[in-house]
């Protein structure tokens, strides 16, 4: 398969708008009334066999399009990330200085974003082209127009026997509408009560049927303003040691050179907060507002999303379909302003010919000098497109249905990152005068150059933006069929088959000027790229054993070709449904699963970078300082790292089991309880830098340098010698290479309930509740290591349990919803204690003015709560786990016409 299909995003958008394309959905359910006695056959996520009703051997959570609006979710990602099964901590778009600040991911069961398979209408989408945390591939959930979402189905547990690789922790299937009559214009705008972070949205959706042709389209435009740390009083000023704005340090003595009244002369910088700060080693200019001034806790976002679909009934047996999705998105953030340290690419100090001393100079450049804080923004231009077409229908002369289709998906991302130019040392220090006998650079700098404020023109002369181009793509050709094979005493044996051929690839192309010495940066920004092919053949059986017992059996073989080798896996799935009485369902499953190694892990060239912040636990321990007040905790920017890939990685092997019971005595009441258990062997992972540093400190404190974990951690962290002239004992770099870890295992329970209370005069009350709790989570990094209890690990910020509950009151033209979310305890930033559980309440009111006009108001976080945590230092809230936004409100107007 040498030919790679490249979908032109503009062409896809044009197809979407002009043709109005639509395709088969994996779950093509039609809404049935509560009084219906025989529900229509639907295809539920986790199976390719149509069945009556949504219950099956595995639990499936369904989020409807109405749920997304009424429960206060802003988009599909917002709805998914708040589901109780999504217990894992992830660094999203609003986390800060990450590899993927323009993307959002989920982590079912806390197993990471790469272990959840995300589908659009049952089809795979291209990965986000940049690896999460620079390591694993995942699907971005930012470009799905919510106006055409019919529902989202979440299957927990392994499903590789049906879908292949990646379906280890579960499957998320986003199912779009396939038909519409008339047109809807939807306007939505909102803001926060504390200010900042407002957003607005316009949607135009419609469709029309022309005899045998059904069409659907949607256009969505979104604008979201950033939220700056300076917009929130509790983190607008950094307590403790302020950030250095200007400093000279004698490296030999470790003392700062006194700057006289220099600090008062630049006291207006950073909003008038720059002062002369005196420490043990002397005085320098500093400000507590440097970090808040430059940090966006919510990214600025502008996106335009288009979708179109069409179905044409060529004959009673054949329907042709096509669908296209195109989205473009610009994300903007700012997580660190421009700063300079002399000779920072080498030893960070120089020989001052004027003072005959080794000195280190530092300068943080303020917004007042560069023309405003936005001048140093970083932004990403992303374009995502998908095109699917094919035919479905029934095989002539039989009752068997089939679908043959082709899907191509492409994702492009362009990163615009401000960088210092190679001339920045000479700008502040003048021309280099050579090197001394120790190889240290010699300068004769003018101190006035360091202390003089810059102009925007001068700043432009020492900075520019690098532009990297990244892309990923996937193509799949598939054929599926299902029908009844023959009759058994208890009913027909139903069969589904699938055959797939696919190819995917990615490339990360850094700005070539980086390696040409144009920027002030370490050279070696290599191109990373790779492809792989996959082939799959599978079958699934639904077997009526006796009248009250049904069994399912699925098997699938997948074969991957990559990096000059092949890797094939057979997975299987078994399930049993037993109805001792009509109102009770007892169900159980056992499934095997696998995940082929992430392409980034395989093909990654040597990569270097730095963490947004680092805590040096060993230096804190040596100094006898607690983490919450340690001088070496949460320092920013953090340590440098080196990462390389490995072509010898093995596929991960997983297995999952489930046992549950459903009681549904009426259409108005049901409750279910499910136990789940997932285990992964040969887990591919890069070790967490924070965990490595914690392990290193713990091992050095107790004198253990030889156990497998201790020896590995200490070898991965290289430090400057304790007697080094500059940065003695500090971390030089951290090595983070991918390995096949020994194992990880997690289990827990899910509880779900629904009750509808109907009244004659006061409308209907609908109550829903979902609860998930992780009972145990254990892992072993190496075979010789003891089993770790991850739930007791104070660096593990996954949710231990989550609860969602809602009450909706429908009466007349009104629909009112109160939605409650309770989050479990998580460790504080210092890892010394737990933060208490937190409950948030959202509310919405929908009023149907008439048949065409609907007006709604939604308020998230009604009680304006912001979770505080001062133990980890600035920014004083649990980043990634909670938001500093506070109360948010939206007003929404929908107008329907033409149908």
From TrEMBL:
It comes from Duganella sacchari. Residues 55-171 form the TonB-dependent receptor plug domain. One of its GO terms (cellular component) is cell outer membrane. Belongs to the TonB-dependent receptor family. Keywords: Cell outer membrane, Membrane, Receptor, Signal, TonB box, Transmembrane, Transmembrane beta strand, Transport. InterPro entries: Beta-barrel_TonB, Beta-barrel_TonB_sf, Plug_dom, Plug_dom_sf, TonB-dep_rcpt-like. PANTHER family: PTHR47234, TONB-DEPENDENT RECEPTOR. Residues 1-29 form the signal peptide. It is a multi-pass membrane protein. This is Iron complex outermembrane recepter protein. It is found in: Cell outer membrane. Residues 341-862 form the TonB-dependent receptor-like beta-barrel domain.
